[in-house]
């Protein structure tokens, strides 16, 4: 009985009809004929309501619904969610579907209205865009079913308490992976880099065929074989590529819902996958006031999943990052020269100068690329014409901050440290371009 009362709901139509009957009853005090009509209408309405309840509750399993999502959601991307509806009644139904979303979306429950014929099914699809990693708990899929009479609604609850983890953007990773495999990276802004000179590893000596580069002729082998022989080279492989992610407070700044840390994590997953496709080894280092995790560079099967799991559990701290501790750990843990892609954010030249001595020490042993972010809101503000004295003053301050970012690039170049100053949305593209450029120049 308790479940019955919990599942039965009055529709708006019944409220409207009852309100009309009340009006007729009030008028009946003044016009007796109207009072008789109101009583008959009330009796008819009561009977019709009972019939509506009976036909809705005659079939205990009159309706079925389920929510289908991915096993894990991709952070910062549009993830599809499907609700499959099946009408097991012998009559067409009008339904209202309310899906209870996780609190992280800060949105009211998703509501849909539709009609389904008897014995038919229908699929409702919508997208969700998480902006934080972690566990997302969906509530119930509530389905309110109305018969053709439409006075009463019966509520069904399905797919309650579903937990779905949100991982770093594996959708972005797969997109870049597919484009790299099909040699279509230029479609998303990846530049074609021309290789300078011969910076590849020796593979074998083979007989010359038309079209081979005559500059690779091996004259000693030619003399021994009495045939024209050439050296064949292959691209350098097994270089170590580390994504070094600053987890300090400077990475808490949000942009379009995602923190700079999440942009860095998504980009790290992409560049790790691209590096492994290029036969290099990928590793991860995360640090704030201390080095939190080091995953050694590798390209064995299952290594990408280790990277994904490590990045899933990272959180931004509130303390200032310790670059001295980072330098000590890199010095002791990474023995081979490697490409270090340092994701951080310097807002001022003085902030860089406090850390530059440690960056220079790291750059002596490894190829260091410092990646930091443009303030895109500041850029938009600078592009807007000033209309008052106050706005002119604010634009002058904003221009000073923007100019300091460019000074940081110059300061890093002065010490031979590569850098990328990028908008957050272009982070992955610019990082891949830099990686391919350094690889083509034979610097790694």
Q: Which short descriptors sum up this protein?
A:
alpha/beta, six-stranded mixed sheet, 13 helices, 444 residues, single chain, elongated, Rossmann fold, five-stranded antiparallel sheet, Immunoglobulin-like, 3 domains
Provide an overview of this structure:
- The chain has helices at 2-7, 12-28, 32-57, 170-181, 219-225, 260-277, 303-312, 323-333, 349-353, 356-365, 376-383, 389-414, 427-440, and strands spanning 8-10, 63-68, 73-74, 79-87, 93-99, 110-116, 121-128, 134-138, 141-146, 152-158, 162-167, 201-207, 229-234, 240-246, 254-255, 258-259, 281-287, 291-298, 338-343, 367-373, 418-422.
- A hairpin with a 5-residue loop joins strand 9 and strand 10 (152-158).
- Strands 18-17-14-19-20-21 form a 6-stranded mixed β-sheet, sandwiched between helices. A 5-stranded antiparallel β-sheet has the order 1-10-9-5-6.
- It is elongated.
- It has 3 domains: 1-167, Immunoglobulin-like (Sandwich); 170-194 and 236-440, von Willebrand factor, type A domain (Rossmann fold, 3-Layer(aba) Sandwich), CATH 3.40.50; 201-234, no CATH class.
- It starts with a helix and ends with a helix.
- It has 444 residues and is α/β, with parallel strands linked by helices.
